[in-house]
Specification:
The chain is α/β, with parallel strands linked by helices. Helices cover 40% and strands 21% of the residues. The radius of gyration is 13 Å and the shape is globular.
């Protein structure tokens, strides 16, 4: 097991196919918990003992958006690295001051971004 593998990552993506692809890729390096909805993500964050990384889609459909999920993550785990994914460059995403990855997702780009944040 690599040192990164012990890092806990929350993935929030409502598109089932993309969630599956990202979960598989990210789980090669990180301990991944995935949520498909705003409500499921908020529940996972509330129940988590620790999170190192949170990666969320901005548009999660009904209930809430990724910025609210990541705000909840930061409130509970201030040192958590948060990454927003979106197909739009909506000002709310940019204004949040989060790491940002534009959709369609380049898995290597996301992996490199996360790896760079945890290099010694």
């Amino acid at each position: 097991m690599t040192p990164e593998r012990s890092l806990k990552l929350l993935l929030v993506e409502d598109d089932a196919a993309l969630r599956r692809v990202l979960s598989l890729a990210l789980s090669e390096v990180y301990s991944v918990e995935a949520a498909a909805t705003y409500g499921a993500a908020m529940e996972l964050v509330s129940q988590a003992e620790h999170l190192d990384i949170a990666v969320s889609d901005f548009n999660l459909g009904r209930g809430g958006d990724g910025s609210a999920v990541l705000a909840h993550v930061v409130a509970r785990f201030p040192a958590c690295v948060c990454v927003m994914m979106s197909g739009s460059s909506d000002a709310r995403v940019v204004a949040a001051g989060l790491e940002f990855v534009k959709k369609p997702i380049d898995v290597d780009e996301l992996m490199n971004l996360l790896a760079a944040r945890f290099r010694a």
